Request: fold
Amino acid sequence: MLELIRQKAVSARSSALHHFLSDKQAFERASAGPAVQLIARDTFVAETSIKLDQLVTEVKSLGRELQLVKGDISELRDEAMRSQRFSEFIDREYKSRASKLDELSRRFDYLKSRFDAIDGNSKGDYQAFRDFESVSRRLTELGAVERQFRDVSKRLKISAAVFLASVVGWLVVLFAL
Reply:
């Protein structure tokens, strides 16, 4: 039986029973005692000794099994801690992304309100601006409006200057007479 156990492939994690069975002392016979007739007390002592040896063997196997269980528990604890840290990392990433998305949404709403104030389009119909070409066309139109505004402003300043010069001329003529 010991040879069968030795031939069996040992896995990375072997049970305490496998260690017990592969232990050479588990299947060795006790040395033969004296060949004389034993009295009742000697028989009791011999049986108690055998039972104590069996109990010690069981305690050793339970100790080995306990060590394996302790190892398993520590591995599970480490895995649980890793899982918890990963879960916390995922939660932090989710909150970070959500806050970035909220910030982006607030900025978009702010820019939309500014654009509506400039454009005068309070409905917010932006379906026409789905590609760069239409946005570029709209910016060109706004640039043309800005240039026209500057031209009108310049003409107004010139007209105001001419009007002021004419008023000053009339006042000079009025006081000169």
About this structure: Confidence is low (pLDDT under 50) at residues 1-12. Residues 137-177 form one domain. The first helix runs from residue 2 to 7. The two ends are 143 Å apart (CA to CA).
